[in-house]
Amino acid sequence: MKNIMERVISEVTDNKAEADLILTTSKSLKMSVQNYLLSEYKVSSSQILGIRLIKDNKVGISYTEALDEDSLKTMIQQALGNAETSDENQYEQIQNLHGEVHDILIPVADEISTDEKIKNVLELEAHPKRLDKRVQAVPYNGYTEQDMESHYLSSKGRYGVYTDQSFSIWSSVLLNENNKKATYFDYHQAHRFGELNWKKVVENSLFHAQQILKEQTIPTGKYPVVLTTDCLSNLLGVFAGIFSAKSAKDKVNPWTEKLGSIVASPDLTIEDHPLFAKTFRISKFDDEGVERAPLKLVHNGELKSFYHNSVTANYFKTKTTGHGSRGATSTLGVSGTTLVLNSKNIKPLPNKYLEIIQLDGLHAGTNTITGDFSLPVKGFVWENGERTMTFGNITLGGNFYEMLKNVEAYGSELVGSTSQSFFSVPLIFNDLSIAGS
């Protein structure tokens, strides 16, 4: 792979240009089941080589799925042509980095036959139906396994290689009782087949669907609210542009002028931690070959930094933070890695609060500029340490930026999301509005 990429770089250099390349390959297997039979069994593979070429301060992007000499030459000529017709960009440059960086996951093979995998997948539907006769279907279920490899090479001499292997399962049980229906989605992922928790996925999906089947409305008013780690991760993900230097450069980040200002509770710290030990997969370098390190985004409530790639760093006259993001076919952007939320001054839980377990309409019901949101939610009412009822058919409303200022911690142990890419101490948000009965 590296030899192919070096030949491309050599030809780019002959054309008095510079470039970086991303070459990705993947192999995957996907299975799902309906009516006690496999409804999908798909084996696939792919490879794609993408080039970002810069000549005379102009950028051209191109890619190819074939790696023969003619295809590589065509890709280079297309990139040169695209650069020639583009506008000058004084900020985009290939990073002046040398040497090699490696981020290789060495898989530990589980000797699992195809028949054994199929048997487990069939249980994603059969198991919940045995447990509860009200299970009408398991409409969304499945299993995937994937091996992925990515190579990065620049004309400045930076070479990086990343490999990964992952397995995932998911289940969404549909219950029907007297024409009242309820469903809940759960999943699990691991780096080894033997680490997949099939029982947890099925039983967690079934348990929550059973609870949702009993949902009631609650009175309109203001309540202290706890979001599960998954819900908090999803909500923060919608507003993730507040940490993007690219969105600040593009004038669509409401926090553009707030560096050095208090934007959250003075107890709250938010860190991007690519090397966090508990994350599903650490990330040692970004898509520009820059080695990563932990980054304080918010510290004691103060906005300390944005995510930067080389372009935004040049624009804002600072340094890249190692958050350059680019696929083989895409232009350069920014993205985060693992978020870790911590808070000081732990407070006791109130006697009564709401726990949100499901947020719907996240993109339709949020305004990322103003921070306002109005979202259908489901969850539990907790009173004096006990879960007393399930609620639904209500709307949670508020302002995300105000939420961050009114948050308190009620515990100190970091809890991970299902994706294991988001970790937070237990947090409670005070005085959020509920539109109920």
Please supply descriptive tags for the structure shown above.
single chain; 437 residues; 2 domains; 6-stranded mixed sheet; 8 helices; 41% strand; globular
Textual characterization of the structure:
20% of the residues lie in helices and 41% in strands. It is of the alpha+beta class and 437 residues long. The chain folds into 2 domains: 2-211, PmbA/TldD superfamily (PmbA/TldD fold, 2-Layer Sandwich); 215-437, no CATH class. The strands form 4 sheets. Strands 1, 2, 3, 4, 5, 6 and 7 form a 7-stranded mixed beta sheet that branches. Strands 11-10-9-14-20-19 form a 6-stranded mixed beta sheet, with helices on one face. Strands 8-15-16-17-21 form a 5-stranded mixed beta barrel. The chain is globular, with a radius of gyration of 24 Å. The model has no long low-confidence stretch (mean pLDDT 96).
Task: Summarize the topology.
Elements: H1 2-14, E1 18-34, E2 37-55, E3 58-64, H2 69-84, E4 99-104, H3 114-131, E5 135-154, E6 158-177, E7 180-190, H4 198-212, E8 221-227, H5 229-238, H6 245-249, E9 268-272, E10 295-299, E11 302-303, H7 310-315, E12 324-325, E13 333-334, E14 339-343, E15 352-359, E16 372-383, E17 386-399, H8 400-405, E18 407-409, E19 415-416, E20 422-424, E21 427-435
Parallel strand pairs: 4-6, 8-15, 14-20
Antiparallel strand pairs: 1-2, 1-5, 2-3, 5-6, 6-7, 8-21, 9-10, 9-14, 10-11, 12-13, 15-16, 16-17, 17-21, 18-21, 19-20
Helix pairs in contact: 3-4
State the gist of this model.
It is built from eight helices and 21 strands.
